[in-house]
Design a protein that fits this description.
five-stranded antiparallel sheet; 5 strands; transmembrane helix; signal; cell membrane
């Protein structure tokens, strides 16, 4: 049981780390001379432009930003609730609250990555001044980590739903 508990804790911390990296790091769309994320666009590693309300489709970018931040917060809250439930639940009860919050985190990261996947091309086309050199790029590792974090938070949420507290 101790090994299972350690695995679940490490799995959850890994999920949170993936969410932090995917949210913070600047590599959602990358190329030879540029990298872009949900916060800024950088060309030649020196010329960075913050994404603000002056660009078209800013509400789409804000939706991605908000859901990624919410996903990270929910994942951290789920971990804290799990630790509290370890000491407060009676023997044989399930970690339902932790599971629900972790699955909400999963849903948020899925929404953010899906919005970015669907709307990225429109954002780049409608803001050609900002994204002029980004046409020949590809999805970066932060974007991929967001999808991996989706899978991890989903599996973690299901594990909490199945798991029962034992001695």
């Amino acid at each position: 049981m101790l090994v299972l508990l350690a695995f679940i804790i490490v799995f959850h911390i890994t999920s949170a780390a993936l969410l932090f990296i995917a949210t913070i790091d600047n590599a959602w769309w990358v190329g030879e001379e540029f990298f872009a994320d949900i916060w800024r666009v950088c060309v030649n590693n020196t010329n960075c432009t913050e994404i603000d309300d002056s660009i078209q489709e800013f509400s789409t970018v804000q939706a991605v930003q908000a859901t990624m931040i919410l996903s990270t917060i929910l994942c951290c809250i789920a971990f804290l609730i799990f630790v509290l439930q370890l000491f407060r639940l009676k023997q044989g009860e399930r970690f339902v609250l932790t599971s629900i919050i972790q699955l909400m985190s999963c849903l948020c990261v899925m929404i953010a990555a899906s919005i970015y996947t669907d709307r990225r091309e429109d954002i780049h086309k409608n803001n050609s001044r900002l994204y002029a050199l980004t046409s020949d790029g590809s999805y970066g590792y932060s974007f991929i980590l967001a999808w991996v974090a989706f899978a991890f938070t989903f599996i973690s949420g299901l594990m909490y739903l199945i798991l029962r507290k034992r001695k």
